């Protein structure tokens, strides 16, 4: 009811054809419960292809629409954390949509790639995020290869990780709970128009990415009047990240594995990747902790270890931050996926498995990494470890002694 005058106002605005730039100045008066309505009506005159869907009663969404970004780095526990959001019935979740952008850009000849300004790629990333937050999944067609025909594709990266993309109306005949192998087989090709409609029909959008280096790169999105961003910055002990990458991407980390097995550091081992991971993680955390105005109320720093050691409480905190109720389905999922018995650990080798005893796997790196490597990472990442509250170890005995906590 309290929405109606705003709705009327917006309808009037839309019909008068007031420019989007004029709407921008209304931003502050529109942060109330009409956000979802605003979302659709404001798009109406800038983006005519949604007009019919909006008019057809897909909208209004009365609750304020949240645009959630799980901002993480490779092997920092983001698949697991993303599932916490994916389980919410009113959240439209996509696992790493930027994969397609990166693929499209890196397929250029190497000469072109070298001259490609990093900012161009970041611009394309932000552009895609914005379009997904406003539920235009067909925008992905610019990047998906092979090019989708008639807005339908078989090549949507990790579609199975998204509940919405594996259940009605996107996937009919979905009578079982989706899982990794089940969805692409049973659901057939993905209709991106239907996916967009499914997105519009859900109240909130959550995206996970590991491809944006620093939170500062997201400033234009947090300031965009069409969005109400909530950034969950997921960090993890860099020593654990390294151990996990060595297991998941063993070809790429062959030199590290030789180092780990022999105790001798090969000269060609690449220290730059873990160094830049640490640098980016620290730069973002510092930015967040400085509380700049553009991040106000929009940034939450989460240590994966805290989530793994205490999943229910930490998940509650995340849900409070994004402003959503933690539904029963989320609670059930947590219970099922954090207290698994040892046999579920055999899934560990699967690159993106999330089903695991969360505490045990969060600490398993301490038994799988040589002290020599741990010491090297501690030197490369000492400031990051200190800022995020991860303790250094001074001996192999301390490293292996799991009663000795390394998380402040
Ligand atoms: C990259 O280029 C090759 C050859 O032109 C093509 O077959 C392939 O589909 C392209 N991949 C992507 C992701 O664009
Ligand atoms: C995709 O879904 C839309 C909306 O339901 C429908 O109009 C269209 O025919 C579908 N496309 C294909 C190729 O099935
Ligand atoms: C562990 O899980 C497996 C499969 O989920 C089950 O067969 C087994 O009985 C369980 N073991 C224990 C000790 O709970
Ligand atoms: C490192 O070596 C130990 C044995 O020395 C092995 O158990 C462990 O799995 C190795 N870690 C990785 C990440 O390969
Ligand atoms: C990290 O190492 C550098 C160089 O050795 C040193 O200057 C700095 O004080 C160290 N930082 C912490 C937090 O120990
Ligand atoms: C392991 O760590 C705990 C806590 O710091 C300590 O009390 C205990 O003596 C350590 N055990 C060994 C074998 O060093």
Automatic annotation (TrEMBL):
GO BP: N-acetylglucosamine metabolic process; sulfur compound metabolic process
Domain (Sulfotransferase): residue spans on this chain: 66-387
Secretion signal, residue range per the UniProt entry: 1-23
Enzyme Commission identifier(s): 2.8.2.-
One matching Pfam family: Sulfotransfer_1
Entry-linked InterPro entries: Gal/GlcNAc/GalNAc_ST (IPR051135), P-loop_NTPase (IPR027417), Sulfotransferase_dom (IPR000863)
KW Zinc (keyword) present: no
MF term (GO), any: N-acetylglucosamine 6-O-sulfotransferase activity
Enzyme class, first EC level, given as a word: transferase
Gene3D superfamilies: P-loop containing nucleotide triphosphate hydrolases
Keywords carried by this UniProt record: Signal, Transferase
Family: Belongs to the sulfotransferase 1 family.
PANTHER family: CARBOHYDRATE SULFOTRANSFERASE, SULFOTRANSFERASE
Protein name (record): Sulfotransferase
Organism of this sequence: Gouania willdenowi
């Amino acid at each position: 009811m309290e929405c109606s005058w705003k709705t009327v106002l917006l309808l009037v605005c839309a019909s008068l054809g007031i420019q989007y730039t004029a709407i921008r100045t209304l931003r502050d008066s529109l942060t109330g419960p009409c956000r979802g309505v605003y979302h659709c009506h404001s798009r109406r005159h800038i983006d005519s292809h949604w007009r019919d869907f909006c008019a057809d009663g897909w909208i209004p969404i009365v609750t304020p629409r949240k645009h959630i970004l799980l901002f993480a780095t490779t092997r920092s526990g983001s698949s697991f954390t993303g599932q916490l959001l994916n389980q919410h019935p009113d959240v439209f979740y996509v696992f790493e949509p930027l994969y397609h952008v990166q693929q499209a850009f890196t397929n250029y000849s190497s000469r072109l790639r070298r001259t490609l300004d990093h900012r161009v790629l970041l611009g394309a990333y932000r552009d895609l995020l914005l379009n997904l937050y406003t539920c235009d999944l067909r925008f992905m067609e610019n990047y998906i290869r092979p090019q989708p025909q008639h807005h339908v594709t078989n090549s949507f990266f990790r579609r199975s990780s998204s509940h919405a993309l594996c259940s009605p109306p996107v996937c009919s005949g979905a009578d079982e709970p989706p899982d990794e192998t089940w969805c692409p087989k049973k659901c057939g090709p993905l209709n991106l128009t239907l996916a967009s409609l499914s997105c519009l029909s859900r109240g909130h959008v959550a995206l996970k990415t590991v491809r944006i280096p620093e939170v500062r790169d997201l400033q234009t999105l947090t300031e965009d009047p069409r969005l109400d961003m909530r950034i969950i910055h997921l960090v993890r002990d860099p020593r654990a990240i390294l151990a996990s990458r060595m297991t998941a991407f063993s070809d790429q980390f062959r030199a590290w594995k030789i180092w780990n097995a022999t105790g001798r550091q090969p000269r060609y081992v690449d220290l730059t990747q873990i160094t830049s991971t640490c640098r980016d993680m620290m730069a973002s955390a510092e930015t967040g902790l400085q509380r700049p105005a553009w991040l106000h109320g929009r940034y939450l720093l989460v240590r994966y270890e805290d989530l793994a050691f205490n999943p229910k409480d930490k998940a509650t905190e995340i849900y409070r931050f994004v402003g959503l109720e933690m539904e029963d389905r989320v609670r059930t999922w947590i219970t099922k996926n954090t207290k698994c018995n040892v046999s579920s650990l055999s899934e560990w080798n699967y690159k993106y498995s999330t089903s695991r005893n969360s505490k045990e796997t969060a600490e398993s790196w301490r038994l799988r990494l040589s002290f020599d490597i741990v010491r090297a990472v501690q030197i490369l990442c000492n400031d990051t470890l200190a800022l995020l509250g991860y303790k250094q170890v001074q001996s192999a005995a301390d490293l292996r002694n799991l009663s000795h906590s390394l998380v402040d």
